[in-house]
Specification:
Elements: E1 15-25, H1 26-29, H2 45-50, E2 57-67, E3 73-82, E4 89-96, E5 101-102
Antiparallel strand pairs: 1-2, 1-5, 2-3, 3-4
């Protein structure tokens, strides 16, 4: 939880810590995925091997819910994406709308 947010009982909470596995609908979180006009056989081999692969549904860990000023919520997530050859990986912190995640781990599989 961010350390500069008040934790006083008089202040309504805006961050709720959670710790659960979820799946992210990456196709909706990143609408441009799959819309590239470049064919895979036109890409250099090093790009296909070392570039980060984003699948339509990816596992993640939800660490919090954050209340927005308009009354809505954002899910705070950590998602690790790897390269096809396993040599590169990055853990992304994402703040996404609730309808882009599911706790049903069988979705999208």
């Amino acid at each position: 939880m961010p350390s500069n947010w008040p934790a006083s009982p008089a202040t309504p909470p805006v961050v709720f810590s959670v710790d659960r596995p979820v799946l992210i609908d990456m196709a909706r979180a990143f609408p441009g995925l799959g819309s590239t006009t470049r064919r895979q056989d036109e890409l250099p081999l090093w790009v296909r091997a070392f570039g980060v692969r984003l699948e339509p549904w990816m596992p993640a860990r939800q660490t919090a819910w954050v209340r927005r000023s308009d009354g809505g919520w954002l899910a705070v997530l950590e998602c690790t994406a790897s390269s096809p050859n396993g040599q590169t990986a990055v853990t992304m912190q994402l703040w996404l709308e609730p309808d882009l995640i599911t706790a049903d781990l069988k979705t999208g599989r």
